[in-house]
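Example (one chain per record):
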Amino acid sequence: MNVTDAVAARTSIRAFKPDVPPAAIVREILEAAARAPSGGNLQPWRVYALAGEPLAQLKAAVAANPMGEPMEYDVYPPDLWEPFRTRRFQNGEGLYASVGIPREDKPARLRQFAKNGELFGAPVGLFFCLDRKIGPPQWSDVGMYMQTVMLLATERGLDTCAQEYWARYPRTLADVLGLPDDHMVFSGMALGWRDETAPINSFRSTRDPFEVWGELRGFD
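Predicted structure:
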């Protein structure tokens, strides 16, 4: 699989099979992704991969605290403006429609949202952390590392779902991971093989055409 194919094939999967990928494959992906670029080669990512009992303990802790904890950063800016507000709205509508949940069924939407805390049934949870003293450029470096992880997983036939949902549980994750006091959780990621029978996995988010967000200047 070439890079173009991996980019086209990657999608956020929200229902996984229980089969656990071999530890050697997970480590191979995480190590290979470390070739992702970072300004000044700071390599600001700190990554934890959980499976088995450690992951079960984390899921149990989250289930016991469904309201979450004070977050260390806003996943979205408050009062989103256009075009971002519409993009987020349409994405949510399409996602819930794929599993037959109407907008007015708030309890069903909350139940679906809560599946984030179960990593959508994924057998592996990846958690990406960084030193809380570094700035936005290094946050973008961690994002590039995560994207590289997702593409390498796709190349190996695995599936992922990046989840900033985990920013809702900074203290729980810090305790479970043994995170140093000077580090914080940025994002989680579900990893495994998709359940091909799950309707939600048929959903693919849309992308605006190039003309909406891009320009070419100075070309013949």
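Caption: The mean pLDDT is 95.
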